[in-house]
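Final report, closing paragraph on structural work. Over the funding period we assembled a curated collection of sequence-structure pairs, and we close with a single example.
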Amino acid sequence: MSELYSDPADWYATLPTAFVSACMLLTDAEDRVLLVKPNYRPGWNFPGGIVEEGEAPHDGAMREVAEELGVSVKAGELLVVHWIPAEGDRPRALINFMFDGGVLDDPARIRPQVEELDEVAFLPWETAAPLLPAHIAPRLAAGRLARGNQRPVYLPGGLPGTGG
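Its predicted structure, as stored:
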């Protein structure tokens, strides 16, 4: 190997890394958004979670929805890519992918994972927004906008339109 080039393993070890999560935007026939209330952290969230090693984000979103809600939902179009810088106890940036889960036509099929969830609810968009933690809340409006415009939204730093 030339002295100009690093060993690939050494080079990759110098690159920044990020945590990856994926979620789904699901609504019901009344256009209410589905949120879940985890029992292991404050606030509500979208169904989803951390993407496993070697797992594609859309597969992670489908797996997490199946685990959390007991329903099989196909990940539709990518709605939001949300980058959040490292902060507090989280030593790396977080990249979240939100996919369109569509409309759940039979909400009675939902079987919440009681080991992780205290509550699952379809809520009006305006009611859902204040229940989400500040770093997650921008995904709600961005997901709705992306779904309506049929075009993904990029959220750098979590605040739409701020660039950071």
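The chain has four helices and seven strands. The helical segments are 8-13, 57-69, 125-128, 138-149. We thank the funder for supporting this effort.
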